Amino acid sequence: MSAQHLENHPEWSGRLAFILASAGSAVGLGNIWKFPYIMGDNGGGAFVMIYLACLLIVATPILISEVMLGRRARSNPIIGMGKLADQAGVSRGWQVIGWMGVLTGFLILSFYSVVMGWALSYVEKAANGAFVGASPDTIKGLFDGLVGNPGSLLFWHTVAMVMTVAVVARGVRGGLELATRIMMPLLIVILVLLFGYNIGTPGFAPAMEFMFAPDFSRVTAETFLVALGHAFFTLSLGMGAIMVYGSYMPRGTSIVRAGIWIIVLDTGIALLAGMVIFPIVFSNGMSPEQGAGLIFQTLPLALGQMEWGYWLAIVLFVLVSIAAWTSAISLVEPAVSYLWERFGIRRLHSAIAVGLSTWSLGVLAALSFNLLGDLTLFGKNVFGLLEFTTANILLPAGGMLIALFAAWRMPRADSAEELGLTGWRYRLWWWLAAIVAPLGVALVFLNGLGVFG
Ligand code: PHE
Ligand code: NA
């Protein structure tokens, strides 16, 4: 590792830029595609409550810890954890956080890019007017037709991957910042608009009940695992993306305040997405348990019946695609910044190398909806397996290690200085990161293994 590379470590143009970029990473398919569909599969309100509890008690202190480690190390997660371990006088084994993160990002991107491809293909369908006045059966047919067709799935998966590599290759300032500035406000406006349209529909009241009146009879050990996993997934937490973005964060910016902003934005958009999707589900007598196709079978239906729906559908799927895009680039960033800082490999080359290997695994994920549908393990196909293990196991495990290192290994003076916290505020963070959050992850894991019956 030469000093020259580290001096080249880039920085955001300011505080807002950090929040925007991290929110760009956080807000993505997790909010608009995944949250509604896993909420639907897990019974609604009770799931939402467990998810919010995980967010508050477990994910928030870990998010603050991850940003803090990144900014302290001013480096990519692998080299950065090595530096922090040296400073703390502990084993470099903690670098496993960085290695695991790079692997997790690679695994997530492989299926994320497939779903981003779905969103892109829906831009095309919207532009062709495919949704205008379409019946539920027609809309369902469009989705089944897409996932049943290996050729078009692979085409859109490839487009998504090329888009991702192109931005990563351009670097932090040029590529990552710009996209979020425009996307985030627009996305919120459109969702609010759709929400307003929904208020008058017959499905609105049942939808609110479904989302906010918890029915704990349907809660299982897996519900906890999925809710916890989603708290990590939706915040891009536990795999180094937030660490790497934190490393580009200028000093003197409050980590806690920025972290809270990111969580509020991400959660707000997820809940809003739910409040847009479920009224459509109930107004049309559909089942909330549609699985991964949920938003692709509901949004077009409502949009197809609305005045201006043709244009709104185009704009909405463009925005979903952009939201996915700004998340996808953050999945590759830890690997790319490592390859640059460790070996001096140019962004263009490393982005292409990482993109190609991720693309290959993504091909298997895409084909698991059709040709490889019979290839299953524990009742899950390749796509389902990738989705389940990354979000529900690898991210919480990574997050737990991050919290343990930040609280138990890093000198307290360092963490206090970096966080800008003193007194009870510092102690609160410390207790949450040292004990509550790791314990929470451990309990959910043990529960998932059936230890508590
Ligand atoms: N947070 C992103 C989303 O909600 C997904 C993601 C996970 C991105 C992990 C980066 C790292 O869509
Ligand atoms: Na998210």
From TrEMBL:
The chain crosses the membrane at residues 12-33, 45-64, 96-120, 153-172, 184-204, 224-246, 258-282, 308-332, 352-373, 385-408, 428-452. It comes from the Bacteria. It is a multi-pass membrane protein. It is found in: Membrane. Keywords: Membrane, Symport, Transmembrane, Transmembrane helix, Transport. InterPro entries: Na/ntran_symport, SNS_sf, YocR/YhdH-like. It holds the Pfam family SNF. Its main location: membrane. The keyword Hydrolase does not apply. Belongs to the sodium:neurotransmitter symporter (SNF) (TC 2.A.22) family. This is Transporter.
